[in-house]
Amino acid sequence: MMRRRVLAVIVAGVLAAVPALALAQQPATQAPLLTLDEERLFAESRFGKALIAAQEADTQALIAENREIEAGLEAEERDLTERRAGMTKAAFDPLAQAFNDKVESIRKAQKAKSDVLTRRFEDERRRFFETASPVLAQILTERGAVAIISKRAVIAGFDNIDITEAAIARLDQVLGDGGVRPPQPVPATP
After folding, report:
1. What's the rounded Cα separation, in Å, for the pair 177 and 156?
2. How far apart are CA 155 and CA 151, in angstroms?
3. Which of 145, 142, 138, 137 is closest to 161 using CA atoms?
4. pLDDT digit string, tens, across residues 103-158
5. How high is the pLDDT of residue 187?
6. Which pTM was predicted?
7. Count of alpha carbons within 13 Å of 139, Cβ hemisphere only?
8. Which one is predicted more confidently, 168 or 17?
9. How far apart are CA 50 and CA 114, in angstroms?
10. What angle do CA 93, 98, 99 make, to 5 degrees?
11. Is residue 163 within 8 Å of residue 36, measured between CB atoms?
12. Contact 142, 16 (CB under 8 A)
């Protein structure tokens, strides 16, 4: 008698799990909602990897240039400080002002370069997602779904609704590395 109860409980548990197992094993085409990890889509695609590498190389080149400029300005400032002892205030003030103007001009030029790098990265990232849009729409249609939502917005769900891997593979075919140019030297600041 006890054995029958245990068996009945086990069978009831298995039967209760069957719909959940069947749902979990459904092909992705049956899911009305799909999920996508947008950051991973970008960062793991060939285009994203190439763009991130180019941005990093350009940023490192700008940092190196900034250090070189800084070293030159420090030397110039030391020279100016040493010369000050033998000069009148009237003779020194225009030199100090010219140095300050030069520093400010260089600071603005270097910030402009940094802004260009940031803008270029953002523009290329935007181009990536504009290109991704029709690819994602095609996957949506192929899977018979009605929407793609951010994977971060999902509290619980099945892995078969995440299309990030499929989207990366498809975008790599369509876009490749996106023609991202190799790192460019940053023009020197006068």
Report:
1. 33
2. 9
3. 145
4. 999 999 999 999 999 999 999 999 999 988 999 999 888 888 888 888 877 666 66
5. 53
6. 0.67
7. 22
8. 168
9. 19
10. 100
11. yes
12. no
